[in-house]
Write the structure tokens for this entry.
Amino acid sequence: MKRLTILALALVFAACGSSGDDTATKDDSGGDDVQLTQGTDLTIAMVTHSDEGSFWSVVKKGAEQAAKDQGVKLVWSPSNNDPEKEAQLIEAAVSQKVDGIAVSVPNADAIKGALAKATDAGIPIITLNSGADQFKALGAITHVGQDEAIAGQAAGARFKEEGAKKVLCIIHEQSNVGLNQRCDGVKQGFGGTVDNLQVKGTADVATTQTEIKSKLQADKSYDAVMALNPDIANAAATAVKGASSSAKLATFDLNADVTKRIKDDSIAFAIDQQQYLQGYLPIVFLKLYKTNANTVGGGQPVLTGPGFVDKSNVDTVEKLAGEGTR
């Protein structure tokens, strides 16, 4: 595969440290500034569909560490799964004349106009997390993230190997193309029945839990559940137990709760896309582009996953997940 994951990881370890102290302030666009007392005069905006939950807190931590290591100012701008707001935040970053924009792409149509303004202004773009199929059309240098279809196929194949017959795939964000790609990939890898369930999402975990529980009570033939987010996985674990279901549960992405549940067998495995790198690497790449005219990816995404975390390796990553970097 023409992928540069190894190069990406090498750049992480080669990143220069900064001895300057940093202070965090709030900027006028609603984003968080990470300002260094020492470093370059570069400003990079990271605009995402973050809901500020456990997954995105790791992305943010990676971005903040990269900003510190690279000596740049970071403007963190979450849109809480609101495509219109995300477009507005991109336009705000363009107005501020930032030196680079890193952006997630759950809905390319909603933000392509705003990104075109960035391109017209000569601001380099790197997409992250979602958008692997759209980054070229959006004018980005490269994409940092996971191929969602490939990851879904791996998860579906894993369920098939473990003898599952019918899978429920839980979609927690409407209009997020990446989540649909995951479930489609699960169907391809599994080769059997996979049904999608649209739930309320991370904004209302209690309702989400009830929706999953009701589905499992109504159809006892589901023997596998695929969550696409750690917080949803936690709700699904409670729902499986509440429904008196014997379904195996797996999830995309990690946090401390997921690693604990893998250890106690309430989650069978997790697909790890290493979201810390999705925050860290775009800052490094944009800094190198601005200061040394470097490009990475060779026209292909820089992949950060997928990988499996299960009983065989959970002890290795548990401490790191507890520290918020996995």
